[in-house]
Recover the amino acids of this structure.
C-alpha cells in the first residue's frame, strides 16, 4: 500500500473539488498547543479529536467557534490568538513559509523527563516550515537543524556528526468530507491528555506511514501502516519488520466517547507488507492468533472519555498485550502483560485548570518472546518505552495573559528493573517473574513547572523539575537529588501568499 501512495495522491490532485479546503495538522511541538490543551482540560472547548493527536487546525477552529456560540469559552483573547495563528483566510490555493531560529538548552537530551538520559548542552535550533494548500490537498514539510539529537540515546540516526537534523513534519494529505488520506510523517499520540500513549506515542521520533480516516466526526475508522527498520538475527540474516494500527472512534453521547484500537508488529526474514494486516476491517487478534495462526505481537486497547459534573472529565486507556486465562500456577506461565492510565481533569475558578491521574505498565509489557516483535523502533517504544512501572501525578495549568501558560506538576514514578529491550525470561523463569516490579524499585519524586507560549515573533517552551530519587540506579538505599530541565526559545519569521 505504501508503494501506491504517490498514485493515490495524484488522483487526489486531479479529483473534482468534492469537499471544503484541506487543513494542516497542529504539530505536537507547537508552543501554542499546551494552551489549547488547557482550554480542553477546563471543558471550555470540546476536544477536536478525543485522545488522538495531532488534530487539524480546521477542527480546532470549529471547536472554538462552537464554544463561543454556546457561551462556554471565557478567554476570548486566547481564542483570538489561536485564530490568528491557525485560521485559514479563504479557500484559494495558497502557500505559507515560516522560519524558526533560536536555541535549545537542556540538562539531559532525552525527550522523556521522567527517565532522563543523554548529555546536556546548549545548541542552536533552526527550522523552515513550507506549506501549500490546493483545494482538498495540503502539503507540508519542515526540515529542522537540531544538534541535540546526537546526544539523545533514543535518536535512531547518526551520532558521529556535529550538525544533525530531522523532519518533525513532512506529509501530503488529501481530505474530503468523509475520507482523509495521509502519507508522510508527524509525531502521533493516542492517549489521555496527561500521559504518554500506550499503543502510540511521541516518545520516539516520527517515521513515515500511510494512513486514512473514513467516516463522520462522531463515528470514524482510522488506520496507519508503516515499515520499520530492518534488523539482523544472530546469523546476520536480515529481518523485515512492519507496524499496523487501527482505531475506531464512537461518540456514544454528548458526554461519552469510546475508542477501540489495536496495534501489531510483524517480523520475519523476507517478510512482506502483508495485505491481511493492512485491512482495517479485520480484527488483528482474531485474524492472527485465533485465526490463521500467524505470528505477530498484537496489542488491543480501549479508550474511554466521560464528561461529568458539568466540566469535569474522566479519561481512561487500557492496553492488553497478553492475558493468561489458563492455569497461572504453572512454572512456565507468563505474567499478564498490560498497561493502563486513568485521569480526571477540570476547571478551578475562572482561569485555572487541574488534573490528577494514575498509570501502570506491567513488567513484561510491550515485548514478547520473539525480540523482533517488540513494540519498538530502534529499541525505543512505539507506544510506551518503559514497562514495569506506575505513576501518580497531580498538576494544573494557569494562563498568564493571552500568550503564556504556566503548568506546575507533582509526580511519583516507581520504576522496576524490567526493560523493553530485556531478553524474554526462560520457561523456568517465567513463573517467577512478577507481574509488576522486577528487582529493586527506584522511586522518583518530581516537582516541576512548565512554561509555553508565543508572543509576536518570540516562542518559548520549557520545563524545570527537581527530582528526589530513592534507590537511585536500583541500588537499595542510594538517594539522589537532581535538577532536570530544558528550554527552547526561538524567533519566528513568516510569509504568506496565494498561488
Amino acid at each position: 500500500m505504501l508503494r501506491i501512495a504517490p498514485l493515490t495522491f495524484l488522483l487526489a490532485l486531479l479529483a473534482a473539488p468534492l469537499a471544503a479546503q484541506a487543513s494542516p495538522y497542529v504539530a505536537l511541538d507547537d508552543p501554542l498547543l499546551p494552551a489549547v490543551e488547557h482550554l480542553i482540560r477546563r471543558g471550555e472547548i470540546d476536544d477536536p479529536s478525543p485522545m488522538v493527536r495531532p488534530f487539524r487546525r480546521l477542527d480546532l477552529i470549529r471547536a472554538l467557534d462552537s464554544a463561543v456560540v454556546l457561551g462556554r469559552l471565557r478567554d476570548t483573547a486566547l481564542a483570538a490568538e489561536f485564530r490568528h495563528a491557525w485560521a485559514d483566510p479563504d479557500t484559494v490555493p495558497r502557500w505559507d513559509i515560516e522560519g524558526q531560529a533560536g536555541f535549545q538548552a537542556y540538562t539531559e537530551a532525552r525527550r522523556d523527563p521522567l527517565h532522563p538520559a543523554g548529555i546536556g548542552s546548549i545548541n542552536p535550533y533552526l527550522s523552515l516550515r513550507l506549506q501549500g494548500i490546493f483545494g482538498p490537498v495540503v502539503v507540508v514539510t519542515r526540515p529542522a537543524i537540531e544538534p541535540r539529537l546526537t546526544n539523545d540515546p533514543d535518536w535512531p540516526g547518526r551520532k558521529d556528526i556535529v550538525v544533525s537534523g530531522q523532519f518533525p513534519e513532512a506529509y501530503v494529505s488529501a481530505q474530503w468530507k468523509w475520507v482523509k488520506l495521509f502519507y508522510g510523517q508527524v509525531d502521533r499520540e493516542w492517549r489521555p491528555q496527561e500521559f504518554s500513549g500506550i499503543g502510540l506515542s511521541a516518545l520516539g521520533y516520527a517515521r513515515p506511514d500511510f494512513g486514512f480516516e473514513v467516516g463522520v466526526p462522531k463515528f470514524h475508522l482510522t488506520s496507519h501502516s508503516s515499515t520499520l527498520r530492518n534488523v539482523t538475527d544472530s546469523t546476520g540474516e536480515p529481518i523485515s519488520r512492519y507496524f499496523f494500527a487501527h482505531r475506531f472512534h464512537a461518540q456514544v453521547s454528548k458526554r461519552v466517547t469510546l475508542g477501540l484500537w489495536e496495534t501489531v508488529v510483524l517480523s520475519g526474514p523476507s517478510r512482506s507488507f502483508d495485505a491481511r494486516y493492512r485491512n482495517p476491517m479485520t480484527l488483528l487478534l482474531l485474524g492472527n492468533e485465533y485465526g490463521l495462526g500467524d505470528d505477530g505481537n498484537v496489542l488491543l486497547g480501549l479508550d474511554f472519555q466521560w464528561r461529568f459534573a458539568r466540566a469535569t472529565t474522566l479519561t481512561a486507556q487500557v492496553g492488553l498485550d497478553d492475558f493468561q486465562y489458563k492455569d497461572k500456577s504453572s512454572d512456565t506461565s507468563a505474567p499478564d502483560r498490560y498497561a493502563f492510565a486513568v485521569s480526571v481533569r477540570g476547571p478551578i475558578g475562572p482561569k485555572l485548570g487541574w488534573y490528577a491521574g494514575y498509570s501502570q505498565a506491567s513488567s513484561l509489557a510491550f515485548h514478547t518472546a520473539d525480540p523482533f516483535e517488540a513494540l519498538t523502533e530502534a529499541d525505543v517504544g512505539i507506544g510506551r518505552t518503559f514497562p514495569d512501572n506506575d505513576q501518580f501525578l497531580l498538576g494544573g495549568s494557569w494562563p498568564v495573559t493571552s500568550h503564556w501558560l504556566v503548568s506546575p506538576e507533582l509526580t511519583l514514578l516507581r520504576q522496576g528493573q524490567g526493560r523493553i529491550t530485556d531478553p524474554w525470561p526462560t520457561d523456568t523463569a517465567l513463573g517467577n517473574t512478577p507481574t509488576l516490579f522486577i528487582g529493586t524499585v527506584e522511586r522518583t519524586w518530581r516537582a516541576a513547572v512548565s512554561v509555553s507560549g508565543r508572543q509576536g515573533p518570540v516562542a518559548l517552551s520549557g520545563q524545570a523539575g527537581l527530582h528526589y530519587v530513592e534507590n537511585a540506579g536500583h541500588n537499595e538505599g542510594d538517594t539522589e537529588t537532581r535538577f532536570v530541565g530544558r528550554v527552547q526559545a526561538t524567533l519566528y519569521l513568516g510569509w504568506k501568499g496565494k498561488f
